[in-house]
Amino acid sequence: MDAYIQKKNLDPSRIRFLFDGQRIMSDDTPEKMGIEDGDHIDCVQTQLGGAPVL
């Protein structure tokens, strides 16, 4: 996760990684999450602030 954030020059406080809809925490391991070769991990960026669209 750290390598991806650095490679894409992202703000780590705004990035979330998910596997099967479950957030991956920094202390999680592939074994703990049940991640196997070929599985996909989602990366989402949170939005802070904004204004209502009228």
UniProtKB/TrEMBL annotation:
Origin organism lineage: Eukaryota, Viridiplantae, Chlorophyta, core chlorophytes, Chlorophyceae
Gene3D superfamilies per the UniProt record, alphabetical: Phosphatidylinositol 3-kinase Catalytic Subunit, Chain A, domain 1 (3.10.20.90)
Sequence ranges assigned to domain Ubiquitin-like in this UniProt record: 1-50
Protein name: Ubiquitin-like protein SMT3A
Originating species: Dunaliella salina
One Pfam family named in its UniProt record: Rad60-SLD
